[in-house]
Design a protein that fits this description.
about 160 residues, mainly alpha, Ferritin, 6 helices
């Protein structure tokens, strides 16, 4: 038997991902070892909080929506695997990972992995929400890609130091 996710369940999962991301970046702000990193972490925390609002606004239109049953059990298991393998399981884990980072390079690498996970999840989520909500998901995917580029640049700059 398949694991069927409703549109609202998936959006609630996305809200959880963004909350955990915001918790991670907020913790990194407090432990940043240089000003350039702190500024980027602050920006990313604010962006994650904006994404939470966007997803929360989507919930109203998804209240009674369930994805078409054409999604197979295999696809449902795939989505569950994406969720289960996310870098951040919850806010507390995200904060702990930020605090336990042995170096700034390690913290940046964790953030890069989290952004990649988000892009992958949201790319799949996009296909399961109403067409009218896809534009918002597309915008978030593009912002997550931008975050990934910023973190990659930060890693390059950090490596040069």
């Amino acid at each position: 038997m398949g694991i069927f996710f409703s549109g609202s369940e998936l959006v609630n999962i996305a809200i959880g991902i963004e909350r955990s991301g915001a918790a991670f970046y907020d913790a990194l702000v407090k432990s940043a070892r240089n000003e350039a990193s702190r500024v980027i972490y602050e920006y990313l925390a604010v962006e994650e909080k904006k994404h939470i609002e966007i997803f929360q606004n989507m919930l109203g239109s998804l209240a009674d929506y369930t994805p078409p049953e054409t999604y197979t059990e295999e696809y449902d298991r795939y989505l569950k695997a994406l969720i289960d393998s996310a870098v951040f399981r919850d806010d507390q884990t995200a904060r702990e990972m930020a605090q336990r980072s042995a170096s700034e390079a390690e913290a940046i690498q964790i953030a890069i992995s989290a952004e990649k996970d988000s892009i992958l999840f949201y790319s799949n989520l996009r296909e399961l929400v109403r067409r009218s909500d896809r534009e918002a998901v597309d915008k978030i995917i593009e912002e997550e890609r931008s975050h990934l580029r910023q973190l990659s640049d930060l890693m390059k700059d950090f490596s040069k130091r």
